Structure formats: structure tokens, C-alpha cells
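Hi F.,

I've been meaning to write this up properly since the lab meeting, where we talked about keeping a consistent format for the predictions we share between groups. The idea is simple: the sequence comes first, exactly as it goes in, then the C-alpha cells exactly as they come out, then a line or two of notes. No screenshots and no reformatting. I'm using this chain as the first example so we have something concrete to point to.
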Amino acid sequence: MTVRPRQPGAPDATPPAARAHPAGRSEVTAGRSEDDRIAAWSLFLQTHTLVIRALEQELVAGQDLTLAEYDVLVHLSDAPKHRLRMSELGALLLVTSGGATKLIDRMTKRGFTDRELDPSDRRVVYAVLTTAGRQKLRSAARIHLAGVHQYFTSFLGDEDTDVLQSICSRILSSQAQGPSQAQGPSKAQGETAVHGDDLTGHVGR
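Output, unedited:
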């Protein structure tokens, strides 16, 4: 998700708690301990796991389609000419090009995708969305979007949505700059979070 753009000169409607410093952190950091933030992290992981599991189960039960396969259909549908290089698809799916190739092999056998060679460079292989794949996406999207609403967006108010967009955008932006640029905890916070046996108790959740 990204923060919605605003017109030049328009007032910033982002809630104060969601505004970020140039370094990428929220202005509102005082009053909460690192343990509180680790607890929030743990809740995020639990919520993510449960929501993804529910969405996957509904897609498999209703359309015999995994979330990874659904993602492939969405990305190919959005792409120019409904096709992507394997390396491009892998980057969008956050997997290697080899992983994307295995996924496309499976979906091609089911008729949802096809392969095309680049006529100017036969080393380049495109994954292409088929008519059956477009039809499958239309059917699966109804189930998936209903699930996203039921398990996630129905719990978000306007301010929740703004804050969540801001947090996710800052994290994605920091990762795009590379690990050395990402803003981690201060030394004091880091010592509190991982001192002694605390690392085992928190990070693995």
C-alpha cells in the first residue's frame, strides 16, 4: 500500500501519529517501551499468519487456487500485453526467477498461463496470461476480495487506514534504500530488545 498523494498546497491530512521524519520514523515515539513495540510486532505476525491462512483456505476450497497462483494472475493481468519476463515476475512475487518458473510450469499445465519466447532474444521467456487465466482471476477475485474485507479491511477506520499506509510506506521505503540505510532501533533500544534470553522469547514468534 502507498500513501494517497495530495494536491500541492493542500493541507496534510495525515494524522500526527502517522507523520514521519526524513529518517523514516514516526514523530510519536515517546511513552512506549521497546517491549511494547515487540508486543505489537508479535501481534502483527499472528494476525498476518491467521489472515493469510484463512484467505488461502477459501481460495483453495472455492477455486482450487493458492494465494501464490492468485498473485501470478493479478500481476499478469496488470502487466502490458498481460505478460512478464520470468525475472520480472519473480521480483514482483518476491521469489527467484527459478521459483517463478516452477510456479508458471504448474499453472501452464492447468491452462491459466503460457510461455512465449522473445523473438529478438530467445533466451528471454515471458509468462503470459491466457483467456482461461483471466476467467479464473475474475472468479477467484470475488472470493479473495470478500475475504480481505471480512478478515482485514472491515476492522479499519479512516485513521487506522492512514496510519497503516504510512507505516508500511516508511518500512518499504527504508528497505528500498538498502539494509545499510534502513532505520533500526537505537543502541539503547537494541540492548533492551535483545539482551540475554529476550532474543529467543521475542524474535522467533
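Notes:
Residues 1 and 165 are 6 Å apart (CA to CA).
Residues 34-167 form a domain with the Arc Repressor Mutant, subunit A fold (CATH 1.10.10.10).

If this format works for you, I'll send the rest the same way.

G.
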